[in-house]
Amino acid sequence: MTNPILYRRRIIPEECILLKDDVILSCDEERIVTSWNALHPKKDLHHGMSCYFLREGFKISKFCYQDNRLLYWYCDIVDFNYHPSDNALIVTDLLADVIIYPDGFVKVVDLDELVTALESRSISLDTLKSSLMRLNKLLSLIYSNQFDQLKASIEHFEKLPFGK
Predict the structure, then answer these.
(1) What end-to-end distance do the CA atoms of the chain give, in Å?
(2) Do 52 and 91 meet the contact criterion of CB atoms below 8 Å apart?
(3) Measured distance CA(36)–CA(33) in Å, rounded
(4) Cα gap 45→93, rounded to integer Å
(5) Nearest to 130 by CA among 73, 156, 92
(6) In whole numbers, what is the pLDDT of the chain averaged over residues?
(7) Measured between alpha carbons, how far is 116 from 114 in angstroms, rounded to an integer?
């Protein structure tokens, strides 16, 4: 896959957005690394970098303040749907997320959205199971002190001139 056109699909609220301003820094069969400015800038969140782990089903993002300080790491449980005919990769947010703060505190969020999505039939039972299994795998990596290996996929590019 050569640098695909990236889309972010959300289930709640239902939307699919072209990530037209994301810059792909690296792309291979296992990972895509991007840098980006916040789609909807907030008081603290200004920009960041993300690594899409295509085989594992999660996306790790480094959220930064305007001055490049770490706000936190944000981990999305996702599904990937590649369309070779138009070289498009649709990344569907499977609702469960993990936030890792600079002090190491880990917070799992949005599990209630999984229930809401299942009850409204926005996701299937199989999708719910897949989301929870991917969440479990990610948490296992975090709790066994392997998150640094995931972060390294992003931090490598921060050292390069185009990574900021």
Answers:
(1) 24
(2) yes
(3) 10
(4) 19
(5) 92
(6) 94
(7) 5
Task: Write the pLDDT tens digit of every residue in 47-102.
Answer: 999 999 999 999 999 999 999 999 999 999 999 999 999 999 999 999 999 999 99
**To which residue do tokens 């469960």 refer?**
96
pLDDT at residue 161 in the model? 54
Arithmetic mean of pLDDT, 19-44: 92
Upper half-sphere CA count for residue 122 (Cβ side, 13 Å): 18
- Please compute, for residue 66, the number of CA atoms within 13 A of its CA located in the half-sphere on the CB side: 4
Helices (H) and strands (E) in the chain, counts: 3, 9
Mean pLDDT throughout 136-160?
92
Q: In the chain, at which residue ranges do the beta strands (DSSP E only) sit? A: 5-10, 15-18, 23-27, 31-37, 47-53, 58-64, 70-83, 88-100, 106-109
Task: Look at residue 61 and give its three-state secondary structure.
Answer: strand
The token duo for 2 is 């050569």
Neighbouring C-beta atoms of residue 155, cutoff 10 Å: 14
Name residue, tokens 């939307």.
15
